Amino acid sequence: MERPLTQALRADGAPLDIDEYERAGGYRALRTALRELQPAALTAMVKASNLLGRGGAGFPTGVKWQAVPMGPSARRPKYLVCNADEMEPGTFKDRLLLEGNPHLVLEGMMLAAYAIEAEVAYVFLRWAYQRAEETMRAAIAEAYARGYLGQHIFGSPFSLELHLHTSAGRYICGEETALLNSLEGARAIPRAKPPYPQTSGLWGKPVVVQNVETLCNVPVIVERGVDAYKALSRTDEGGTKIYGASGRVKRPGAWELPMGTTIRELLEEHAGGMRDGYRFRGLIPGGASTDFLGEEHVDVKMDYASVMQVGSRMGTGTMVVLDDRTCPVGMVLSLELFFARESCGWCTPCREGLPWVARTLAAIEAGQGQESDLELLAQQSRLLGPGHTFCALAPGAVEPLQSAVKLFRDDFLRHIRERRCPFRGQAA
Amino acid sequence: MTLTAEEKREIAEEQKRYPDRRAACVEALKIAQRSRGWISDDTLRELAAHLGMTADELDGVATFYNMIFRRPVGRHVIFLCDSVSCWVMGEEALRARLKQRLGIDFGETSADREYTLLPVACLGACDHAPALLLDRELHGDVTETQIDALIARRG
């Protein structure tokens, strides 16, 4: 099985240095593109590859790039930002690339910058990722030392300055317009769209923001060509995907596999099934802001379209498994406490609604809930849903909530009727 | 404590990366916090003047981000991940152990000012849950026994 993003990773977990990366074929795609491809042709290739944004939203990457004003009349400098603020609970895929294959991230950034004619690029890195900070810092220095960054890269007219920005921690920084405010040195609150960042983003100039894994796919598209890239996938959505599983499975981990690998294959073959003494009850397929799926959904393919068809989202593709000895109410409470804490406070429904949801869940978990609380939670799920808030944080927060209240209704009712958590004292 | 020449040099170095000197304000807060442990009102005012911002503007930034401290913290900060994977894998037991050993819960500092305990959102180490950061050092697959060892090592 082909794993173009991860097959060169060293077994000892140390990052590939620039020589190792080049021996494995690294920076060939960039040389090819600078020699043979016009920026618009590169964008057209990425669009034809059907690479969908790997940060969780699944927006077509080529379409995003096409919205950037091009040519001599475009306002400059233009910017390219790598969103490395990985902070979606349950997600640990970008870390693998940042720590293990930093030059692939850089080559992807350089190609994207070339496609949109950007002069300046930033890696927006999460403060907690200390090792990734070290590997990225070293890789950027290596690339500058070889002349792969800076003026006239590989003797071409293309020049790029690339900087590392380490943030100070806040989930909302992953939202692209909030990230731009953060990079400008302000509170990371989201912005109204339009204008879209591609036309007026960073310091009022055009910018494209892409997730780490998305950018790492770009050299693969150039190197292999559109058809071979699409053939890596089992579905219409191009390429491979770094999937992951955590919770009480035998072998928690992350694996690069063909896009469209089923949940069952991920759980049984790659994660090794459930730990002895635990049974599967459900999962959130791609981070905290995705709806729970149950046993009846394990044969669903993990791609954006297929997971959406069964009422959830693939999100980041790293699933968190709920077992039969873990309390579903407690799990949802953990999720909602996270969202309540990380709400940026900018808009009222999110700032006030999420703590209300968390308090209601905490009361149920503590045996102090009422049956009418379930209707309250359902109502909050609607009021915090799409169209009622400034950004996607609260709508994301209610996805696991609304699905848990339906899927695990009996567990909620037992807490309320028995006036205690029936799982307390028996979880291992 | 006023900003040292070395700190001002570091801040100037960061400012080179951005077209607007205020953009380095998050970095400047981190630089000032490194030796002081936290950002006092005096430090905030001095930094703001240095960056060409009002103190209120900079405070808006300082209070927004999780790892800028506007109150004193202990010599070490334990960031315990309480997000979903770590919660499933036993975060509550670790929190209880820390409370038992250090007498502190989330948001509190031990009486000897050695440790502050804070919750932190997902550390991206879910395959090694439960996880924590001791200052900026990541520990995964943490057990209650390891908590004791970690504290003993630093103590």
Strands, helices and their partners?
The complex is a heterodimer of chains A (428) and B (155).
Chain A (H helix, E strand, L loop, with lengths): L17 H6 L4 H9 L2 H10 L12 H6 L12 E6 L9 H7 L1 H15 L3 E6 L4 H16 L15 E6 L9 H8 L23 E5 H13 L1 H5 L9 E7 L6 E6 L4 H8 L9 E5 L8 E2 L9 H6 L8 E6 L4 H15 L5 H18 L6 H12 L9 H15 L1 H10 L10
Parallel strand pairs in A: 1-2, 1-4, 2-3, 5-9
Antiparallel strand pairs in A: 5-6, 7-8, 7-9
Helix pairs in contact in A: 2-6, 2-9, 3-6, 5-7, 6-9, 13-14, 13-16, 14-15, 15-16
Chain B lengths: L4 H11 L9 H12 L4 H11 L3 H8 L13 E6 L2 H5 L2 H12 L5 E2 L5 E6 L11 E3 L2 E3 L4 H11 L1
Parallel strand pairs in B: 1-3
Antiparallel strand pairs in B: 1-4, 2-3, 4-5
Helix pairs in contact in B: 1-2, 2-3, 3-4
Which structural traits does this protein have?
heterodimer; A: 428 residues; alpha/beta; Rossmann fold; Ubiquitin-like (UB roll); de novo design (two linked rop proteins); 3 domains; five-stranded mixed β-sheet; four-stranded parallel β-sheet; 17 helices; 11% strand; globular; B: 155 residues; alpha+beta; Arc Repressor Mutant, subunit A; Glutaredoxin; 2 domains; 5 strands; 45% helix
What's this model, at a glance?
The complex is a heterodimer of chains A (428) and B (155). Chain A has 428 residues and is of the alpha/beta class. Chain A is 42% helix and 11% strand.
Write a structural description:
The complex is a heterodimer of chains A (about 425) and B (about 160). Chain A is an alpha/beta fold. Chain A has 3 domains: about 20-230, NADH-ubiquinone oxidoreductase 51kDa subunit (Rossmann fold, 3-Layer(aba) Sandwich), CATH 3.40.50; about 240-325, Ubiquitin-like (UB roll); about 330-420, Up-down Bundle (de novo design (two linked rop proteins)). Chain A has 17 helices and 9 strands. Chain A has a 5-stranded mixed beta sheet with strand order 6-5-9-7-8, sandwiched between helices. A 4-stranded parallel beta sheet of chain A has the order 3-2-1-4, with helices on both faces. In chain A, helix 15 packs antiparallel against helix 16 (about 395-405). In chain B, a hairpin with a 5-residue loop joins strand 2 (about 110) and strand 3 (about 115-120). In chain B, about 45% of the residues lie in helices and about 15% in strands. Chain B has 2 domains: about 5-60, Arc Repressor Mutant, subunit A; about 75-155, Glutaredoxin. Chain B is elongated. Chain B has helices at about 5-15, 25-35, 40-50, 55-60, 85-90, 90-100, 145-155; strands at about 75-80, 110, 115-120, 130-135, 135-140. A 5-stranded mixed beta sheet of chain B has the order 2-3-1-4-5, with helices on one face. Chains A and B meet through strand 3, strand 9 and helix 13 of A and helix 2 and helix 5 of B.
